[in-house]
């Protein structure tokens, strides 16, 4: 489980790094706004990741006991809870988007860029919130290889090519990074 789990974590960290390099070419305000948005989602995701770890442990526990009903209960509770958390946190993040942006900066140019990204950021959070629980189910079942394949496909076959296209062909600016992340998260859930 170590290799697939580590590879999955590395893929997610690396894509944020690559997207940051792409955004950095747009200018100082854009990279500042992108880094602030990355910090916001990273902090919010700690809630979800903690839930996912607990889900994986509980699924593994019930799988080890051959208790299918217990594992199914964990899946249902984790799915429902992650949907609630994902939607509530995303809603609150969207409602208080300007206040959250102002925690980082008072520079209106950067705040405006953050506000452009906010709908994509919180949509990504909602998708990731539910999807991370489903990946935790795979991990708890000892099927971390499936999780790794989904992450590789989402990162290298969806997020990165889409980001390149949106940045360099469509030239849509900072939102390119966040549209590509959202698409990658959605594909990861499908895979």
Please tell me about this protein's structure:
With 191 residues, the chain is an all-alpha fold. Helices cover 90% and strands 0% of the residues. The protein has helices at residues 2-24, 28-64, 68-95, 97-104, 108-140, 144-169, 175-190. The longest helix is centred in the first third of the chain and has 37 residues, at 28-64. Helix 3 (68-95) packs antiparallel against helix 5, helix 5 (108-140) runs parallel beside helix 7 and helix 6 (144-169) runs antiparallel to helix 7.
What is the topological layout?
Blueprint: H1 2-24, H2 28-64, H3 68-95, H4 97-104, H5 108-140, H6 144-169, H7 175-190
Helix pairs in contact: 1-2, 1-6, 2-3, 2-5, 3-5, 4-5, 5-6, 5-7, 6-7
Key terms for this structure?
191 residues; mainly alpha
- The total count of strands amounts to 0
Query: Low-confidence parts, pLDDT < 50 over ≥5 residues?
Result: none
Structural class: mainly alpha
Q: What is the first-to-last residue Cα distance?
A: 19 Å
Indicate the proportion of strand residues: under 5%
Oligomer: single chain
| Main beta sheet strand tally, sense and closure | none
Helix content: over 70%
Elements, N to C (H/E) = HHHHHHH
What's the alpha carbon Rg, rounded to whole Å? 17 Å
Mean pLDDT: 92
Rough outline: globular
Q: How many helix segments?
A: 7
Summarize this entry quickly:
The chain is built from 7 helices and no strands. The protein is mainly α and 191 residues long.
